[in-house]
Amino acid sequence: ISWRDDQAASSSVRKKQSLSLHPRSFHHLSLLHTTMKLSLALATLAVGGASAFSVNQNGGLRTSTQLNVFRQPIMAGNWKMNPTTESDALNLAIGFCALVDTLEDTCGLDESETCTEVVLFPPFPFISKVKDIVQEKGITVGAQQVYYEDKGAFTGSVAASMVKSVGCEYVLCGHSERRTLFSDSDVNINAKVKKVLEFGMKPILCIGETQEEYDLGITEEVCAMQVSKDLAGVSKKDLENVVLAYEPVWAIGTGLVCDAEDANKVHKFIRTVLAKMYDEEAAQSIRIQYGGSVTPESVDGLMAMSDIDGCLVGGASLFSDKFARICNFKAAEE
């Protein structure tokens, strides 16, 4: 439906309605307003050429010719604010490393494009000692977040230079918990992405819709908005060092499951957005992880999908055996 048709339809409805509204109607109007704003934003993104969001007769996205690009799998364990003591953190790292010896296809940063890259995100106080344990196994460490300023009177914040100096290769940017619990805006997330790149590290940019947005059917609009805002000013060359992570917020720690095929459709859509922002080569080259209650039982199905290149794992990464199994997923047979 075009914007003009939608506007005309809305006008017609308003004429038939009474000027008196039930209080609960205001909530529905607010949700409708949000949806309309997102639709307008998508229309703006499409100006200047063929839209990256064109829809075929079956309602699916029309994709460009796929390039023959190999994307190295990447598994990341986000420990969040766990475990509660340094000794527990070190024991977790030691336990995982003991299991890594049994994994044939696991490697660290840039070691080989034919195996799975593994990254751990411990809490700040544990990063250095965890790194000392896991680096011998080729496992990389990262920071769960940074501030976009280099230094100054920002009590409680951590600079990119600080985590770089203790050996971090990756930084999470825009994780759903930072967005919702700490009000991390897209403007701030964009500044953090660029700061991480400036210091020679790799951001894992997290995007995804909330339960309310999912129920409204605006998953694609939300993801398109976040990608376009959070990568604003990031060059195609810098994009080579960016990893995306699609994490439907409603599936994180809730027990709700996003079907592998549904997740893959969103990943494909994200690539159409990137193709519009950059080009098809950039869109097909970037690695996109899935994050949302990933388990040993669900990982094989996820990794069998064409556009899912790895997983951002939360709760399961706190159990050595579970995370080891996830990292040693069973690849689909050619």
Task: Summarize the structure in words.
Helix content is 43%, strand content 12%. The chain is built from 14 helices and nine strands. Strands 1, 2, 3, 4, 5, 6, 7, 8 and 9 form a nine-stranded parallel beta sheet that branches. Helix 2 crosses helix 9, helix 3 (86-100) packs parallel to helix 4 (127-134) and helix 3 crosses helix 14. The radius of gyration is 21 Å and the shape is globular.
Treating each run of at least 4 consecutive H or I residues as one helix, how many helices?
14
Distance between the termini: 41 Å
Q: What value does the average pLDDT take? A: 83
Shape: globular
Structural class: alpha/beta
Report the helical percentage: 40-55%
Strand content: 5-15%
- The string of secondary-structure elements, in order, is HHEHEEHEHEHHEHHHEHHEHEH
Largest sheet geometry: 9 strands, parallel
Give the low-confidence spans.
1-30, 43-65
Radius of gyration: 21 Å
Number of strands: 9
Question: What's a quick, concise take on this entry?
Answer:
This protein is of the alpha/beta class.
Topology of helices and strands:
Layout: H1 3-16, H2 23-46, E1 74-78, H3 86-100, E2 106-107, E3 116-121, H4 127-134, E4 140-143, H5 160-165, E5 170-173, H6 176-181, H7 186-198, E6 202-207, H8 211-215, H9 219-230, H10 236-239, E7 243-246, H11 260-277, H12 280-285, E8 287-290, H13 299-303, E9 310-313, H14 320-327
Parallel strand pairs: 1-3, 1-9, 2-3, 3-4, 4-5, 5-6, 6-7, 7-8
